[in-house]
Amino acid sequence: MSAVLLVEDEQHLAEGLRFNLELEGYDVAIASDGESALALLQAEPLRFDVVALDVMLPGINGFEVATELRARGQFVPILMLTARNHPDDVLLGFEAGADDYLPKPFELRILLARLGGLLRRRAWLAQTSQQTNVMSESEKPPASYTFADKTVDFTALELRTPQRTIKLTVMEADLLRFLFKYEGKPVSRKTMLEEVWGLHEDTDTRAIDNFIVRLRKYFEDDPAKPKHLLTVRGVGYRFVRQPEE
Q1: Cβ proximity of 149 and 162 under 8 Å
Q2: 162: cis peptide before it, omega within 30°?
Q3: What's 142-239's CATH class?
């Protein structure tokens, strides 16, 4: 049974979501504010498999909660729930360390799809770490990927550069793995939403653009003039391992 921490200050909404999530087999705890959520996660850092985090909270907001969790080295997947779906607000969520976002109001089936996607990715990473030693070389998924002077370690969820080591969220690692797989080829935003997020319904593709902005900040020497993660106008993006001088 997967454990969900639902951080929501509207009691009627929180209780309704808990009821429906428990019907789906989830173990659900509720925190009504950011401080309570941080206290729960600090007291039992391994208890929860995913956090559904509202942005607008009394006291510290959802952005601050996510930032504090990542600063502590806690990388539990975070689904940000927000009525503020302006691109700048979504980008703030990703910069704070959220793995995905869901605008309010939302349908229950979409919430379940988003939570399920984050949990599957986390389970897959754990399974990959356990099974790698017993798999043949041809069967093993790449545990790391190196380009220029940078290495992405998918097992440790880290991006290492000569200057620093950056912790990655599950979603960031998944998106990088996908882009590396299609190195040199244009990949559409829709394809990334379907293959990385596992979503096939109409979804705001600006989420992809916000992730790309964040990743460029991680490893491009000049994020405004990227050499590795290129925009393909009208299509999506293309990853280049060895840029032409």
Answers
A1: yes
A2: no
A3: mainly alpha
Each residue of 61-83: pLDDT tens digit? 999 999 999 888 888 899 999 88
pTM of the complete model beyond 0.85? no
Tokens 């996908």 sit at which residue?
A: 178
Q: What angle do CA 182, 198, 81 make, to 5 degrees?
A: 120
Helix, strand or coil, per DSSP, at residue 177 = helix
CB-based burial, 89-128: b 16+ in 10 Å, e otherwise:
bbbbbbebbbbbbbbeeeeeeebebbbebbbebbeebeeb
| For the chain, domain boundaries | 3-125, 142-239
3-125 and 142-239 have identical folds: no
CATH code reported for the domain at 3-125: 3.40.50.2300
CB neighbour list of residue 119: distance below 8 Å, 6 or more residues apart: 2, 49, 50, 77
- The answer to whether the Cα torsion of 146, 208, 70, 52 is positive or negative is negative
Q: Which of 228, 227, 238 is nearest to 187 (CA)?
A: 238
